[in-house]
Structure formats: C-alpha cells, structure tokens
C-alpha cells in the first residue's frame, strides 16, 4: 500500500525527529533490527520485572506492541520497512502484559511518572487497546485526571497527545448488518476530550469493515484490509520474517488493537483482535 507519505519526509522534512512516542502495549522488542536505532536507551519499562526491557518473552512469534512500534517508527535503513515517523524515538510500556494490571502502572504508562519509568517526556502516547465491552465500568477518576494533566502539562506545557484506537467492532459478533455493532463511545475513555480517537480505512480509502463507528472518532487513516500484496511491512519479532499486513498510519493501530479489561478490577486477559 502506498500511503504517499514520502513527500512528508522529502519535501516537508517531517520525519518524527525529536518526537518521543510512548507505545503503551504488550511489549517492545528494544533490540529489534528495525527499531533499535530509534529506541530511547533505558527509556522503556517492563512492569513485570521492573527493568527497562519490555521485550515480550511470551509471544515470541509476534508481539503486538512491537508491531505497533514498527508502524510508527521503523528506521530508514537497509532492512524491513519504514515507519510513518522513521526518526521518532520510541519508549515501550508493557502495561497490557502485566500479570495483574494495576491502576498505578496504567497511570505511570501515560505520563504520570518521572522515573521508573519516566513517561513524562513522551510527546505522544499510543493506545491500541480498548476496554472489554462486557465490563460496564466508568472511567476511574484518576485516569481522567491523568489524561487532563497530560494534555495540560507535558511536552513543555504544550500538552502531550493521547492517540487511541476506536475499536474493531463494526461487524463483530453482530454480523454484517451494515450498521455498527459497537460504538466507539462504548469505551468511556474514548469519550474523553483528551483522546485523539482513530478509525481505520482500507486500501480503497473507505472505512475498513471492522472499524468501529461513533462520534468519538477524530480522524481515520489507512490500515489493513487491502487487496493481496498491498500491505505494509510490520516489524514482528526478530525471530520471524517480516509480515506484510496492516498499516494504521496515525500513531494508533486500530486494526491490531487488543482489549483491555475495564479497571478495576484488573485482569491479565488481553484478546488479540
Ligand atoms: Ca527499515
């Protein structure tokens, strides 16, 4: 898929340089050959062992957070593909992989911490996840407060950006009815004014069949669901070959989001979608 991003690099000179993106997800393979150049040294965090290496050692045949990171910032080099911001800096926070997800870790992933991890210097937070719609939980006050603080105080007072997937539930369990099975607003976090909620378009430039509709969506971008052979390269785990697949082109992977249980209570269950 040619998303015509090259002129943004070559003509406008916008490459993501000096921009730090926090990928709040399952993990980040910090030594990946197409990501390592852009990974902030010691800038990531593994909430399971309190180290700065969130490499997913369980999903070794393809880590969601590593794939998302590649879409954002695969380096311009001689291997793999290239991200939409090939000079952006990456930090990975593996909140979704926590055995028991905690509110404190979630807040720490979203700019609420200055050390272990330092998430406070991220410009953009990518959230390719959503709550389980079977959990009818309001958004915790602490989360809403963190989002507000982030868009108010981070990035030198200019405010950080929180980019979030709208969802993959248009046809979902309801079948192909022609109307949205789910609504982007069902996830209470999507309804906050602090989130840039992203929908997905297919290679023909129309809504991807699965992409959840709803008034919470700010912007849509090209993603998976394309004719064979037209996908973009993803950075999967180094142990497997690159796959040609989905290409969300905002900093949020609507096509590869996972479900985060509503909090509290927390659950270790994440569902690849
Ligand atoms: Ca590359």
Description:
13% of the residues lie in helices and 17% in strands. It is an alpha/beta fold and 273 residues long. It has one domain: Peptidase S8/S53 domain (Rossmann fold, 3-Layer(aba) Sandwich), CATH 3.40.50.200. The strands form 3 sheets. It has a 6-stranded parallel beta sheet, with helices on both faces. A 3-stranded mixed beta sheet has the order 4-10-11, with no helix packed on it. Strands 8-9 form a two-stranded antiparallel sheet. Helix 2 (64-73) links the parallel strand 1 (20-24) and strand 2 (89-93). The longest helix is centred in the middle third of the chain and has 13 residues, at 141-153. The two termini are 21 Å apart. Bound molecules: calcium ion. Residues 34, 74-75, 77, 79-82 line the site of calcium ion.
Summary tags:
alpha/beta, Rossmann fold, binds calcium ion, three-stranded mixed β-sheet, 273 residues, 4 helices
Helix content: 10-25%
Mean pLDDT: 83
Number of helices: 4
CATH topology annotation: Rossmann fold
Low-confidence stretches: 226-249, 252-256, 261-273
CATH architecture: 3-Layer(aba) Sandwich
The set of bound ligands, ions and cofactors reads:
calcium ion
Radius of gyration: 17 Å
What is the CATH domain class? Alpha Beta
Give the CA-CA distance, first to last residue: 21 Å
The helix-strand sequence is: HEHEHEEHEEEEEEE
Largest sheet: 6 strands, parallel
Tell me the number of structural domains. 1
Q: Can you say what the CATH homologous superfamily is?
A: Peptidase S8/S53 domain
